[in-house]
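Review form for a predicted model. The reviewer records the input and the model, then writes brief findings.
Reviewer: anonymous (R2)
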Amino acid sequence: MRVPCVLVSLCVLLGAFAARAEEPSAPLARSGRFRPRLSLVDVPFNVRHGAPSMRQAADMQELVMGGGSWAIDLLGERIGQNSRSWVRPVVEVPLLLTWALLGATVLPGGDAWFHEEWHRAVLSRHGVSSFNGVYELRLFSEFIYVKHVSDEGLTFIKEQHPQDFVRLSAAGMEAQVASNVRLQRDIFYDRRSPARDVPRLWLNAVSVFQYLRLCVGTRSEDALGDDVREVDIAERDFTGLDCSGWIYDLENDRQPYAERGVHPSGIGVDRYRYADQLSPEGRSYLKRASWLSLLNFASPQLFGVGHLPVPGRPEDRWSFALSHQLTSFGQVVDGHLLASLAGWNVGATYHHYLNGTRAFPGLELRLVRWPVPTQAVSAHLSAEGWLWLQPSDGRFMDTRARLGGGGSLALAVDVLPRLAVYAELDAKSAGWVTGNVYLGSAVQGRLGLEAAL
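Model under review:
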């Protein structure tokens, strides 16, 4: 399933390296910068639910995957300094592709691990224990999933927090799209070439599209044999096909969990849902979501272009991206604008939320790493503000809108030339926000480290 993605990534990656080879020089700060972040403390999640939170899992994934790609790019740069121009891509491209594939399959801290950890964060939020199947290191396994989840835990979430139960199934693909959006922002604001990140960007986008198409085309008889063999409840996936569970529970958010029926083995609840168990409207909505996920490819960075020029202003730059995500009430299509104007790093995102009845708008504005004007310390400030209309009760069939919003503020203070300590505070009203595990109103704080390598 990943072969077409690898071939496309290879072609784009070679093109990106060819374009970069035309530059007279490519020092590390220009072509290979890496900005890892690590949230050491994330409250209240760490206090109430353990670790990692969604943010901590995202930081760890970028530390592992971004760090590996940076090291490979640094190696390629060193090789390229003392050899012909074609040697660097010949050495570096296969290593980057291999690293991306390892991250997408068995590597703890990689993209597949990250996908499962966002599922687990929702489970942990409600006190339900689980296990990330990536830790089993099954290189040739067709599916990797979250296991060791009890029927009682799933019953509790479904009955007491039905919107969180919908979010539970969608959270893995939410993680992959959020990873690409974060990576695209880092590429742009750090003024680096996207060449080394092309395989990861493509693998995430293709994986989400393929998964949705798999859900659209898989019927219950296609997997019945596998279901029957799963006698041990602890070894079962918590949901089966993520997007089939997502749309089923969107449509049936008030259905008691036990009404799914008995598992084909005769033991426990029949967890898995398939396309033929959805209503015609549900199948249509799922199919529409699968095609909308193609918007995740709409970014110049997936094709090796880090930024676009501003006519008549050689120091200014801009870029854009589109994205699509599954949410706890339906889905959202986002339009992202990235800009560096007169020395200010700014951005905006328009959110187009969609449930089963109508569309709702939202807007997000951000300031990225503004240098604090003080001689006492070297520091930078980042801020975001959010305003939205979302379904009034957070449900699939809501017709009324509810106004909401929030914001975040982060201050990073340098403690070494390439290392800073940062503190972040964010608050929001009730509503769905990418990477925020709380669907109700919430105030969160983080303390961590940020480096610029």
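Findings: The chain is about 40% helix and 25% strand.
Further findings: Residues 3-451 form one domain.
Recommendation: see findings above.
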